[in-house]
Design goal:
By secondary structure, this protein is mainly beta. The protein has a single domain, classed as Coagulation Factor XIII, Chain A, domain 1 (Distorted Sandwich), CATH 2.70.50. The relative contact order is 0.19.
Length: about 220
């Protein structure tokens, strides 16, 4: 009994340590997040105790975009035009960097960026970080995937990504127009954003200006 108690305590401590490494989306609940209040993973999937880890570097792809491809069966509901106060658990902010937030209505086959924050995302963040992200006022109703992407400013050239499964209450059918996300520092052949700890250093922001225009159409029911 005593050994079991020690083992359980050690597992809890290890889980807390892994969750705090680097940065991860905690609200809306990222897929399989271990935090209390988040849904249980779908059948056949497991809690992600390394939720804050990067999905790849400029040389390797470790996990798919979103980290996990099977959506939650339970979704958070938001209204079109509503601002979500997104939250993040921060272990190491790596000098901040660039963040993008995007929506998909087809489980990640196509994305449209709804917010971009250059350089200042997560800057000086410690422990927790919040960022307001508005759902477009013209967003159609339906099940959607809410994605967060982060390219860090300092350290290994990495890409971070988490996705939350949400339900949007908007108009019946319609379109969202914008740009596709920039997927950088994610395996060989992807665009590379170098380190930019100083304001005078190139930060790859010109790559964001070259993102392709996209239109996502949701059919009326």
């Amino acid at each position: 009994m005593f050994k079991t108690t020690i083992l359980a305590a050690a597992m809890v401590a290890l889980s807390a340590m892994t969750v705090q490494a680097h940065v991860g989306l905690s609200y809306p609940c990222a897929r399989y997040h271990p935090a209390a209040g988040c849904p249980a993973p779908p059948a056949g999937q497991s809690i992600d105790y390394d939720i804050n880890a990067p999905i790849g570097t400029k040389d390797t792809i470790n996990m798919p975009i979103c980290k996990h491809t099977v959506p939650y069966s339970k979704r958070s509901t938001f209204k079109a035009g509503q601002t979500i106060q997104t939250k993040y658990s921060v272990g190491a902010a790596h000098g901040g960097g660039h963040c993008q937030w995007a929506l998909s209505y087809d489980n990640g086959k196509s994305w449209v960026v709804i917010k971009t924050l250059i350089r200042d995302c997560l800057k000086n963040a410690q422990g927790t970080y919040t960022a307001p992200v508005q759902i477009p006022a013209n967003a159609p109703s339906g099940k959607a995937t809410f994605m967060w992407l982060w390219n860090n400013a300092i350290g290994n050239r990495e890409l971070y990504s988490n996705c939350a499964d949400i339900e949007i209450q908007g108009k019946n059918g319609g379109q969202i127009k914008g740009v596709a996300p920039l997927i950088a520092n994610y395996g060989k052949g992807s665009p590379t954003i170098g380190e930019f700890p100083l304001a005078s250093q190139p930060d790859g922001s010109e790559l964001f200006n070259k993102r392709k225009a996209v239109t996502i159409t949701v059919k009326a029911k």
